[in-house]
Design goal:
Layout: H1 3-19, H2 24-38, H3 44-49, H4 61-73, H5 77-85, H6 88-93, H7 101-111, H8 116-124, H9 136-154, E1 156-157, H10 158-173, E2 180-183, H11 185-189, E3 193-194, E4 196-202, H12 206-214, E5 219-225, E6 229-234, E7 239-245, H13 250-258, H14 261-273, E8 277-279, E9 282-285, E10 288-291, H15 295-301, H16 317-322, E11 337-341, H17 352-361, E12 366-372, H18 384-400, E13 405-413, H19 424-427, E14 432-436, H20 445-457, E15 463-464, H21 482-492, E16 495-499, H22 509-517, E17 522-525, H23 537-546, H24 560-567
Parallel strand pairs: 4-7, 11-12, 12-13, 13-14, 14-15, 15-16, 16-17
Antiparallel strand pairs: 1-3, 2-4, 5-6, 6-7, 8-9, 9-10
Helix pairs in contact: 1-2, 1-7, 8-9, 13-15, 20-21, 22-23
The chain binds zinc ion (ZN) (2 copies).
């Protein structure tokens, strides 16, 4: 889905026009278009295929043409040309919270400010005061804004990093000089937020790889270009490092650059005990190199099985490997269904048929269609009468469908007092009920905890959705006593969700593992509101694997009939 990409380009054009001091109406037109495209529930490429771009709000013939250009070429000529006129650093400065294009223009015109570091220094030295509209207080706010921006930029969500690294690797693979290529670092370990992308390559012609890499279209700035190592910033300011290593060192380098640091320290200690030395170049006994081409050699030199990258955090994986107790981590192939998708019945855009079709293409056997409950009006909450229709529609669908089965579910709202947004008479008719908090986040820990516990005590509630409510980079988890919630989940046999929506990943890896350890089942749900988002399943599996989960720990690995038996156990 290219919606965000198109919107980003329009937004950047608006910013550049503003820096250049152009006509406010023109600026506004781009901003409005960007916003409307972002809010589209449908894939803009599909709208383009139907030739209906200019019927979108705020999109005339001219902008429609520009969208088509972006969709076919990946960018816009006009935008690429404007980029040359405006210093890159200035485009970064306007991303600082509270500092818009207008102030950036003043800073540039008056003091030739072109980078954040320069701006920070000038603000600290009180050199900005006295410029039009800038007072002592503004200087203070600029410094605060820089701090927030730096913190936010230092880590990026897994989903963004995964797709960017795949895009880069896909491009590099087209180069015949690239013999082996692998992403290392926290992307390979699937951390929930990531600082930069590390790529390792084997190639007989490193300089060719460096040229090709630093000239990729997604490169915004080249920070360093060497013979075997280069760093760039890709769109969004994301740093990507590439290294070409010798073929006989590839495995050792992959292990070294995958990390984590804490895991590698343990590996090196074990090596020393065996009279070996392990580093990024290989495995050595004295001066003699005894291996390093494959990652397995590193672990087998230590008499260990290969430890999956997701576990390499020094959270007990070395001990488990030493004792032969590594978990059989769940694999994507073992996932039979998604426990949380929205349909047209609430705020999703897809019909039941479309959801099932997508599920079939993904190789899934079943999908739980869990729409919002009646009170959640802004999210198209399903009324009692509509719910009867949905039950009938799904029944009818399942009778016809040989391959994919649908579960008629609900994401029922947990009210402020812990009561549920549907009566039990309705809940008991559903195949699956996931309950969630969507309001009252400001309540204290005890109240919030008790709300969830009360919901779990309802026999018709099978799963608690996005249990902690955190949104990565935006909202902290609300105050909860998770230990108690996990205990109650075990007692009431309620599953806890691993919400796979990129910003949520809730529960996270650590709590998922804690839940598993107490015998609680987990339930991956993508919370998809459009079909493409069903692909987030992979992110849920990443969290599950980091949480040491096996097939038996996940509702997603049950067959349709096993799951139905489980959810209807109270009938
Ligand atoms: Zn929700
Ligand atoms: Zn939802």
């Amino acid at each position: 889905m290219k919606n965000q990409e198109v919107a980003n380009i329009f937004r950047k054009i608006a910013d550049m026009l503003e820096i250049k001091g152009e006509n406010p109406f023109r600026i506004r037109a781009y901003q409005k278009a960007a916003q409307n495209i972002e809010n589209l529930a449908e894939d803009i490429e599909i709208i383009a295929q139907r030739n209906e771009l200019d019927s979108l709000p705020g999109i005339g013939k001219d902008l429609a043409q520009k969208i088509t250009e972006i969709l076919t070429t990946g960018t816009l000529k006009q935008y690429e040309e404007m980029k040359k006129e405006i210093p890159e650093g200035l485009m970064e400065i306007i991303l600082i919270p509270g500092l818009g294009p207008r102030t950036a223009k003043i800073l540039y015109d008056e003091l030739k400010v072109e980078s954040i570091d320069q701006l920070e220094r000038l603000a600290q030295e009180h050199k900005l005061q006295g410029l039009p509209g800038i007072k002592a207080k503004t200087e203070e706010n600029i410094l605060k804004g820089i701090a927030i921006y730096r913190q936010k930029m230092s880590r990026v969500m897994l989903s963004t990093m995964l797709s960017l690294s795949r895009e880069i690797i896909g491009e590099l693979k087209t180069l015949k000089e690239v013999k082996r290529i692998e992403v290392a670092g926290s992307v390979r370990r699937r951390r929930e937020t990531i600082k930069d992308i590390d790529i390792l390559v084997v190639s007989p012609r490193p300089e060719k790889v460096m040229d090709f890499f630093t000239q990729l279209r997604l490169v915004e700035t080249v920070q360093a270009k060497g013979r075997t190592k280069s760093s760039i910033r890709a769109r969004g300011g994301i740093q990507v490092d590439i290294r070409v290593v010798e073929p006989e060192s590839f495995g050792a380098a992959l292990c070294y650059f995958t990390g984590s640091k804490a895991h590698n320290i343990r590996i090196r200690e074990l090596a020393i005990k065996k009279g070996l030395k392990i580093n990024e170049y290989g495995i050595f006994r004295g001066e003699e190199k005894i291996g390093g081409e494959e990652e397995e050699e590193v672990y087998s030199a230590l008499e260990l099985p290969v430890i999956p990258p997701e576990l390499r955090e020094d959270r007990g994986e070395i001990e488990a490997a030493l004792h032969g107790n590594l978990p059989q981590l769940v694999e994507m192939e073992a996932i039979r269904g998604d426990l949380h998708v929205h349909s047209k019945y609430s705020d999703g855009v897809a019909t039941l048929e479309e959801i099932a079709h997508k599920a079939e293409a993904m190789g899934l056997e079943w999908i739980a269609v869990c729409d919002h409950s009646q009170s959640l009006k802004i999210a198209g909450g399903v009324s009692l009468a509509q719910m009867e229709e949905k039950i009938a529609a799904i029944k009818k669908f399942n009778q016809k469908s040989k391959k994919v089965k649908l579960l008629c579910g609900a994401e029922v709202d947990i009210h402020n007092d812990g009561s549920l947004d549907y009566p039990d008479e309705l809940l008991k008719k559903l195949d699956i009920v996931i309950a969630a908090i969507h309001s009252g986040f400001k309540q204290d820990e005890k109240t919030l905890t008790n709300r969830i516990i009360k919901a779990m005590s309802n026999p018709w509630v099978h799963v608690i959705a996005h249990p902690t409510g955190r949104l990565i980079g935006e909202r902290e988890a609300y105050p909860l006593n998770l230990e108690k919630i996990i205990e109650e989940a075990a007692r009431t046999r309620t599953a806890l969700e691993i919400n796979a929506y990129p910003q949520r990943l809730d529960l996270n890896d650590i709590y998922s593992r804690a839940a598993k350890d107490k015998g609680v089942l987990l339930a991956i749900g993508t919370d998809a509101h459009i079909l493409d988002q069903m692909d987030y399943l992979e992110l849920g599996v990443a969290v599950a694997r980091r949480g040491w989960l096996e097939k038996k720990d996940l509702l997603n690995c049950l067959s349709y009939s096993e799951l139905m038996k489980l959810t209807h156990r109270k009938d």
